[in-house]
Amino acid sequence: MRSSLPPAADVARAVETAPPSVSSCRPATLSAELRISVSRLHRQLRSQRGEADLSDGQYAVLSVLDKFGPMSPGALADHERMRPPSMTRTVNALDELGLVRKSEHPTDGRQVLVSVTEAGVAELRETRRRRDAWLTRRLGALTAEDRAVLARSSELLRRLAAG
Question: How many CB atoms lie within 10 A of CB 163?
Protein backbone atom coordinates (compact mmCIF):
# COMPACT_ATOMS: atom_id res chain seq x y z
CA MET A 1 0.00 0.00 0.00
CA ARG A 2 1.33 3.41 -0.98
CA SER A 3 1.62 6.14 1.57
CA SER A 4 -0.33 9.30 0.90
CA LEU A 5 2.45 11.34 2.52
CA PRO A 6 4.79 13.27 0.21
CA PRO A 7 8.46 12.22 0.04
CA ALA A 8 10.68 13.74 2.76
CA ALA A 9 12.51 15.91 0.22
CA ASP A 10 9.22 17.47 -0.89
CA VAL A 11 8.25 18.20 2.71
CA ALA A 12 11.65 19.79 3.41
CA ARG A 13 11.39 21.92 0.25
CA ALA A 14 7.88 23.06 1.19
CA VAL A 15 9.04 24.06 4.66
CA GLU A 16 12.06 25.94 3.26
CA THR A 17 9.97 27.85 0.73
CA ALA A 18 6.95 28.51 2.91
CA PRO A 19 6.34 32.17 3.67
CA PRO A 20 7.17 33.17 7.23
CA SER A 21 4.29 32.69 9.61
CA VAL A 22 3.10 35.47 11.87
CA SER A 23 4.44 33.56 14.88
CA SER A 24 7.91 33.23 13.30
CA CYS A 25 8.06 37.02 12.96
CA ARG A 26 7.72 37.60 16.70
CA PRO A 27 10.99 39.02 18.07
CA ALA A 28 11.59 36.14 20.51
CA THR A 29 10.98 33.46 17.87
CA LEU A 30 12.88 35.31 15.17
CA SER A 31 15.85 35.94 17.46
CA ALA A 32 16.19 32.21 18.18
CA GLU A 33 15.90 31.31 14.49
CA LEU A 34 18.40 33.98 13.45
CA ARG A 35 20.86 33.01 16.18
CA ILE A 36 20.81 29.39 15.05
CA SER A 37 21.06 30.23 11.34
CA VAL A 38 23.82 32.81 11.76
CA SER A 39 25.76 30.42 14.03
CA ARG A 40 25.52 27.62 11.47
CA LEU A 41 26.62 29.90 8.64
CA HIS A 42 29.49 31.23 10.75
CA ARG A 43 30.61 27.67 11.57
CA GLN A 44 30.54 26.74 7.86
CA LEU A 45 32.56 29.82 6.91
CA ARG A 46 35.11 29.18 9.67
CA SER A 47 35.64 25.66 8.34
CA GLN A 48 36.94 27.14 5.07
CA ARG A 49 40.60 27.70 5.97
CA GLY A 50 43.82 28.60 4.22
CA GLU A 51 46.96 26.48 3.91
CA ALA A 52 48.13 27.12 7.50
CA ASP A 53 44.84 25.82 8.95
CA LEU A 54 44.84 28.55 11.60
CA SER A 55 42.65 28.48 14.67
CA ASP A 56 39.89 31.08 14.86
CA GLY A 57 41.94 33.04 17.41
CA GLN A 58 45.05 33.03 15.22
CA TYR A 59 43.04 34.16 12.20
CA ALA A 60 41.44 36.94 14.26
CA VAL A 61 44.85 38.21 15.42
CA LEU A 62 46.16 38.29 11.85
CA SER A 63 43.04 40.16 10.74
CA VAL A 64 43.41 42.75 13.51
CA LEU A 65 47.08 43.33 12.70
CA ASP A 66 46.28 43.61 8.99
CA LYS A 67 43.52 46.14 9.65
CA PHE A 68 45.09 48.25 12.43
CA GLY A 69 48.83 47.75 11.96
CA PRO A 70 51.46 46.77 14.55
CA MET A 71 50.27 46.35 18.14
CA SER A 72 51.71 45.20 21.42
CA PRO A 73 50.61 41.77 22.65
CA GLY A 74 48.79 43.53 25.51
CA ALA A 75 46.84 45.74 23.10
CA LEU A 76 46.01 42.66 20.99
CA ALA A 77 44.81 40.82 24.09
CA ASP A 78 42.60 43.77 25.04
CA HIS A 79 41.21 44.06 21.51
CA GLU A 80 40.43 40.34 21.28
CA ARG A 81 39.28 40.07 24.91
CA MET A 82 41.88 37.42 25.64
CA ARG A 83 44.08 36.95 28.66
CA PRO A 84 47.66 38.15 28.02
CA PRO A 85 49.22 34.67 28.47
CA SER A 86 46.81 33.25 25.87
CA MET A 87 47.69 36.06 23.46
CA THR A 88 51.39 35.43 24.03
CA ARG A 89 50.89 31.77 23.03
CA THR A 90 48.89 32.82 19.96
CA VAL A 91 51.50 35.38 18.87
CA ASN A 92 54.34 32.89 19.43
CA ALA A 93 52.57 30.26 17.32
CA LEU A 94 52.01 32.78 14.51
CA ASP A 95 55.65 33.90 14.79
CA GLU A 96 56.85 30.29 14.47
CA LEU A 97 54.76 29.97 11.30
CA GLY A 98 56.32 33.16 9.92
CA LEU A 99 52.94 34.91 9.77
CA VAL A 100 53.81 37.68 12.24
CA ARG A 101 57.01 39.45 13.20
CA LYS A 102 57.94 40.74 16.64
CA SER A 103 60.03 43.88 16.83
CA GLU A 104 61.22 46.30 19.46
CA HIS A 105 58.81 49.09 20.39
CA PRO A 106 60.25 52.39 19.03
CA THR A 107 59.71 54.36 22.25
CA ASP A 108 59.43 51.72 24.99
CA GLY A 109 62.22 49.16 25.04
CA ARG A 110 60.24 47.01 27.49
CA GLN A 111 57.54 46.34 24.92
CA VAL A 112 57.35 44.37 21.71
CA LEU A 113 55.30 45.23 18.65
CA VAL A 114 53.68 42.50 16.59
CA SER A 115 53.06 43.02 12.89
CA VAL A 116 51.71 40.81 10.14
CA THR A 117 54.24 39.55 7.56
CA GLU A 118 53.74 39.17 3.81
CA ALA A 119 53.15 35.46 4.45
CA GLY A 120 50.50 36.39 7.03
CA VAL A 121 48.75 38.68 4.57
CA ALA A 122 48.87 35.91 1.95
CA GLU A 123 47.30 33.48 4.46
CA LEU A 124 44.53 35.98 5.21
CA ARG A 125 43.85 36.46 1.50
CA GLU A 126 43.76 32.71 0.86
CA THR A 127 41.38 32.08 3.75
CA ARG A 128 39.12 34.92 2.63
CA ARG A 129 39.24 33.64 -0.96
CA ARG A 130 38.17 30.15 0.15
CA ARG A 131 35.40 31.52 2.33
CA ASP A 132 34.14 33.80 -0.43
CA ALA A 133 34.27 30.94 -2.96
CA TRP A 134 32.27 28.66 -0.65
CA LEU A 135 29.64 31.32 -0.03
CA THR A 136 29.51 32.31 -3.72
CA ARG A 137 28.80 28.67 -4.67
CA ARG A 138 26.03 28.48 -2.07
CA LEU A 139 24.50 31.78 -3.19
CA GLY A 140 24.70 30.68 -6.83
CA ALA A 141 22.39 27.77 -6.02
CA LEU A 142 19.66 30.15 -4.82
CA THR A 143 17.05 31.84 -6.96
CA ALA A 144 17.46 35.48 -7.92
CA GLU A 145 14.51 36.26 -5.64
CA ASP A 146 16.18 34.54 -2.69
CA ARG A 147 19.43 36.42 -3.35
CA ALA A 148 17.48 39.70 -3.38
CA VAL A 149 15.96 38.81 0.00
CA LEU A 150 19.44 38.04 1.34
CA ALA A 151 20.80 41.32 -0.02
CA ARG A 152 18.15 43.20 1.95
CA SER A 153 18.66 40.96 4.97
CA SER A 154 22.40 41.60 4.87
CA GLU A 155 21.78 45.30 5.43
CA LEU A 156 19.39 44.54 8.29
CA LEU A 157 21.91 42.18 9.89
CA ARG A 158 24.60 44.86 9.59
CA ARG A 159 22.29 47.29 11.43
CA LEU A 160 21.54 44.70 14.12
CA ALA A 161 25.25 44.04 14.62
CA ALA A 162 26.00 47.77 14.90
CA GLY A 163 23.78 47.95 17.97
Answer: 4
User: Looking at residue 150, which CATH number applies to its domain?
Assistant: 1.10.10.10
Task: Identify whether the C-beta of residue 131 lies closer than 8 Å to the C-beta of residue 45.
Answer: yes
Look at residue 109 in the predicted model and tell me its pLDDT: 83
C-alpha 27/C-alpha 35 separation (Å) is 12
CA distance 159 to 52: 33
How many structural domains compose the chain? 1
Instruction: Quote the CA–CA distance of 144 and 150 in Å, as a whole number.
Output: 10
pTM over 0.70: yes
The DSSP bridge partners found for residue 116 are 100
Q: What is the pLDDT of residues 96-125, one digit of tens each?
A: 999 999 999 888 888 899 999 999 999 999
Residue 24 located in a structural domain:
no
DSSP state of 23: G
Q: Write the Ramachandran bin of 70: left for phi over 0, alpha for psi from -120 to 50, otherwise beta.
A: beta
